[in-house]
Amino acid sequence: MEGRRRRWCYWVVTVVHVVGILIFTRGFLLTRTELPYYSHCSDVSQSPCFSPTNNDSLSSSSSSSDSSINSSNINQDQHCWTKPAVDRLVIIVLDALRFDFVAPSTFFPEKKPWMDKLPVLQRLAFKQGSSARIFKAIADPPTTSLQRLKGLTTGGLPTFIDVGNSFGAPAIVEDNFIHQLVINGKRVVMMGDDTWVQLFPHHFNKSYPYPSFNVKDLHTVDNGCIDHLFPSLYQEDWDVLIAHFLGVDHAGHIFGVDSVQMIEKLEQYNLLLEKVIKVLESQSGPGGIHENTLLIVMGDHGQTLNGDHGGGSAEEVETSIFAMSFKQPPVSIPPELDTSSCEQDLDGRKMCTSSIQQLDFAVTVSALLGVSFPFGSIGRVNPELYALGASKWNLEDTGAGDCKNQAKLQEWVQNYVNVLCINAWQVKRYIDVYSASSMIGFSSEDLLHISDIYNQAEGNWSNTKNFLLYENEQGHSLLPALRRQIDAYSNFLSNVSELARSKWTEFNLRMMGIGLAIMLMSVFIIFLAIWQSNRPQIAFPLPSGDSRISFDVIFAFFIVAIRACSLFSNSYILEEGKVAIFLLATTGIVKLQCSIMKKKMLPEAVVFLLLVSVLRFTIEIGLSKQAATSLFLNVSSSWMLRFAPDHPLWTYMSESGPILALILLAWLLYRTISSIYCQGIWKYVIMGTISSYILIAVHWGSESSISSVSSLLQGVGRSYIPRMVYTVGLGQLFLMAFGQLFSKEKALDEKWSLIMKTTAMLSAWSSTIIILSGQQGSLIALASVIGGYCILRLDSMEEDAISGTVRKLNFNPLAVTQWNLLAVCLFFATGHWCAFDGLRYGAAFVGFDEFVLVRQAILLTVESFGFSHILPILGLPFLAVCRYSPGQTNHGKSSIFSLLYPMYMMFGLITTTTVIATLMCVTIQRRHLMVWGLFAPKFVFDVVGLILTDLIICLALIFYSGKGEDRR
């Protein structure tokens, strides 16, 4: 009964953790409330702005009647909120389009291989008198594709919690640009990324979706877009065409930005865009179907050099928009509205790019197409993109005597002021409704501040309308008044967007405090359980002969405290892997000193430190998501042994090294089944793992660049072998579960019984984890075996030293701390880090091409946490075996479970302590600039890791305890 009570204790801890995390999360990750309201054409009658019809008549001849201002006279049959400036819109989305993919290399300090690969866009944008423009578009993090598409179409800010929906995008329920197109009679055709169909399931007249999450597939989506794009350009059955290409995004995820595949994709896109522009230009003449068409080529987000995105770094949030009108080429707009940044090329030619917030995209294209602005949009109609589409940019800076151009300039500015008036009114309406409807609204002080700014702008607008109606006929210039009005509305809109970015999430400190208190209570429960399990052996003060145990306890506490404190700094969170490896090396140095003093276990201490040094190097590789494969050696430098990156030696080493490591692991398992203690189902489980290792070697051979049979194995090796490995792994787990429940345990020594169980369990999981991790998997697995063995041997050195004394603790906290730190280091050494762009999405498609949410989520979880959580926790019984000596307690024969239980509790205590430090950190740093880009992802990874740790510990205690333990 004692064993059963102990197992239930950790289930209680798990429940406490879940409750505390849920309450804390409810206070920290509050989401923006999505309002079920939609804009309609008739709504503009409530605004103080001119109607489109009346504004047109006002431009041609001023009226002295106040009734002409009355917006209730809007002819809704002709226009909606604004007069349409373009008839058709072509949107080509190149997923993960970095700004330096489009902008000339002269804009950057150093030219890189991927720059200037889209020369057709640069040629058109910088051509004299061109009607094209390149914009640097700034996205709001998180920069996953789902959040960016929602932000682009709704005009609102993304919510962090929606990152979890990136693998199963729900339909957008709030008002958006696509919905406004549909209710205004616009016909929309979509092709490419199937996320669009998930977000807008019933909005497209035609759709050609292709699965988007198989990042190993560079061509299926792109080829599908190409097949449907060019025929559609010749058809007249659409008003808005959306083509979403994914090749650059997938090439970045798998190969990185600086890769041959990335350059090939960019060159392919350049040819594609050249053909698209040629087709549009050929039909842009008078009466042509593209006479009034606007082309937009844009990215939804950027990507890091490793091809990742999701966070808030400059590389991830900076993307590009290329816009081109096929009407008269514009020249300039009023200088105060120009955001150009200019450089000179090698020929002295002036090249300028503008900037735009992605937040402004939805409202700007809505104004260009003449549809209602999305109800929840808080963006501003961008003057440069709006002027380009409206073809009113052809206004030269003229003197006061050029009345004709001055009048044209005034007409355009007047129209833009009216658009901004509608824009500001719509944003103010949304803020008022949101604050009244949502519990997560703005504070009264914030509302009063933005209301004052809006009222001031409205007061100026009343005076400006009088100028427009009466002063214009006297020939007075209205430009100064109009420009002041633009400043007033722009000031209001910028204040709203800044307020939303800084305070959209109102943190519930009370719930966060309750959740943190519950987590602290769990620490007390775990500590009490450890104390209770050691109570018969604890006697204070410690005798001088046991001072080594006292030092290990204090030193272990010091190491855990240092790591927990490091999580309060954003710099140390970024370098978390290096902090963990430094602390692990520190414990290794202490063990080395001890082994030198005692003149024993010196080889193990030296090997452990050498392993830590290797892991330190692999963490650097892991941060660039390059495993020790031919890809890493091609991209990385020739500084290693002065060999060229493409030297055959590196190729053979990178291909043969992982297979040799796999052979060594299989040999170790073979030695295990050769033991007389390996009997029954455990022997068959281990044999199944050896068979899986052979299959994995064949799988890697099918992907080899040096194997002559790789082409023959591609079909079977790349698809069916991984599935066979998964099937064998599941069969092994079911076999062990059956043996635990129904088979009778033979009268083996308790120590060897636990060894066989642990070996079988680790081997059953290892094959799946290795194949998901790629060719680095066997190397990391071998490193974990070596590291674990060294920790066991060095811990036994302490055990031998105190074998003749009465133990004050029946386990060594420092050894468990080393075990935990090794697990943390393996997480970073396998190419992961605590951010959503640190997930290796390609692992979810090992053996599969189609996307199934549950299956791919399980595979991604196993790959992400396999070496850092699953294997270390399931392998912890080896520490108990190392210290187990039957019959050496003060209360009769000792069960090995009495050693295993406090070790698991200690492992859980260390993990819980670091998670509590993370919770305290995000509470303190909740207003930090990097809260959503760094602290929130760290929080999510840590709490998911803690829950996974708790569940694995609970299952391990059930599996390893044995049936006899329940009767003790």
Question: Overview of this structure, please?
Answer:
With 968 residues, this protein is mainly α. Among the domains are: 85-395, Alkaline Phosphatase, subunit A, CATH 3.40.720; 657-816 and 829-885, no CATH class. It is 58% helix and 6% strand. It contains 32 helices and nine strands. A nine-stranded mixed sheet has the order 4-3-5-1-6-7-2-9-8, sandwiched between helices. It is elongated and about 100 Å long. The termini are close together. Residues 56-77, 162-169, 393-401, 537-546, 625-644, 801-808 and 888-893 have low confidence and may be disordered.
Structural class: mainly alpha
The span between the termini is 6 Å
Kindly provide the radius of gyration, computed on alpha-carbon positions and rounded to a whole number of angstroms: 33 Å
Largest sheet: 9 strands, mixed
Name of the level-1 CATH class of one domain: Alpha Beta
CATH fold-level assignment of one domain: Alkaline Phosphatase, subunit A
The second-level CATH architecture of one domain is 3-Layer(aba) Sandwich
Share of helical residues: 55-70%
Q: Strand content of the residues, in percent?
A: 5-15%
